TrEMBL record:
Protein name, per record: Metal-dependent hydrolase
Gene3D superfamilies: Ribonuclease Z/Hydroxyacylglutathione hydrolase-like
Organism: Sphingobacterium thermophilum
SUPFAM superfamilies xref list: Metallo-hydrolase/oxidoreductase
Single GO MF annotation: hydrolase activity
Pfam family, one: Lactamase_B_3
Length: 231
């Protein structure tokens, strides 16, 4: 049976995947994002919520959305411990770590390296930030999370990635120029940009971003908040 995969951009680094009918929400930060005012979180009903790390701009809405949807929350061990402290049911929190792969009803999720910092909103140690590689049937999708450019990305080059979600805003993560290098490291030409324009330190020149990716013969997609596309 053919894959039916789509994604909707909810701002910053928050995306809602639809993997053949299973909804997977990444890094929910909507309520406090002024660019996402038109997104109604009361309508979000994910089956899974996946966190790349514990910074406020990636977890602000996780408790609210989990409580209304009953979603399972997936995160690295220490960030998962913070999730449990927010009152979410223990059986709805799934922890794993680097080298680990979760075999879930919609496909596989492998945790991979990211170069960033991590703490939870209460200031506690959040473990190490991470990225994820999704294998959904014959499709492979890399969600980098918050990361700088790192040589470990070259370990993904032989995966034949179909899509990569990369931060491009700079300041807290790699910028558009390093993201072009990252695209080469991971051997993926189809890039969806994230972690840009939310607040002044990560504001970018969108036309410049399009130009540098085009010059590198890469396909950069910058979705409007609320916009969906098929993968």
């Amino acid at each position: 049976m053919a894959n039916t995969i789509s994604v909707r951009y909810l701002g910053h680094a928050c995306f809602e995947f639809d993997f053949n009918g299973t909804k997977v929400l990444m890094d929910p930060f909507i309520t406090y994002n002024p660019l996402a005012k038109h997104i109604n979180i009361a309508e979000l009903n994910p089956d899974y919520i996946i966190l790349s790390h514990g910074h406020e701009d990636h977890v602000a809405d996780v408790a609210h959305i989990q409580q209304q949807s009953g979603a399972s929350v997936i995160a690295i061990v220490e960030t998962a411990a913070w999730v449990r402290r927010q009152g979410m049911p223990g059986d709805k929190v799934m922890e794993f770590n680097f080298g680990g792969t979760l075999n879930l009803p919609f496909g596989k999720v492998k945790m991979v390296y990211a170069l960033h910092t991590n703490s939870t909103p209460d200031g506690a140690y959040g473990g190490v930030p991470c990225g994820f590689v999704f294998t959904i049937g014959d499709k492979k999708i890399y969600f980098a999370g918050d990361t700088a450019l790192t040589l470990e990305m070259k370990l993904l080059a032989d995966l034949n990635l179909d899509w990569a979600f990369l931060p491009i805003g700079g300041h807290y993560t790699m910028d558009m120029y390093d993201a072009v290098k990252a695209s080469d490291f991971i051997n993926c030409k189809n890039i969806i940009g994230m972690h840009y324009d939310t607040f002044p330190p990560v504001t970018i020149d969108v036309e410049e971003a399009k130009r540098v990716f085009t010059d590198a013969q890469l396909n950069l997609t910058l979705l409007a908040v609320g916009e969906s596309m098929s993968l």
